[in-house]
Design a protein that fits this description.
InterPro entries: PilZ_domain (IPR009875). The protein is mostly beta strands. It is built from one helix and six strands.
Length: 102
């Protein structure tokens, strides 16, 4: 009488790409180094010692890319950002893969 095991489904509209990439983020009080944990076309999950306040405008900087958005949620040192406009998340994910390969 075994029951089948089902993994929880992700209810997000956009698929997120997992990665670990150092980047920078502009906050209201200055620029900080952040760790990018995952990304999609519409947002990202990050880690930072000093997190923004939910609703705070921020800009993710990765190489020559600058992506404006707002802090959507905060949980400890992790936080989510909703981008102002959809982006090509594959370009940032590719930078992360190149970084890991070097």
């Amino acid at each position: 009488m075994s029951k089948s095991f089902e993994l929880p489904t992700d209810k997000r509209e956009r698929r997120r790409q997992l990665l670990l990439l150092s980047a920078e983020m502009d906050f209201l009080d200055g620029r900080r180094r952040v760790h990018l944990l995952n990304i999609s076309q519409t947002g990202a999950k990050l880690d930072c010692d000093q997190v923004p306040v939910p609703g705070e405008p921020v800009t993710l900087r990765c190489g020559t890319l600058a992506v404006p958005g707002r802090a959507a949620w905060v949980d400890g040192n992790r936080f989510g950002v909703a981008f102002d406009k959809p982006i090509d998340s594959g370009e940032i994910a590719m930078r992360g893969q190149q970084h890991l390969a070097s």
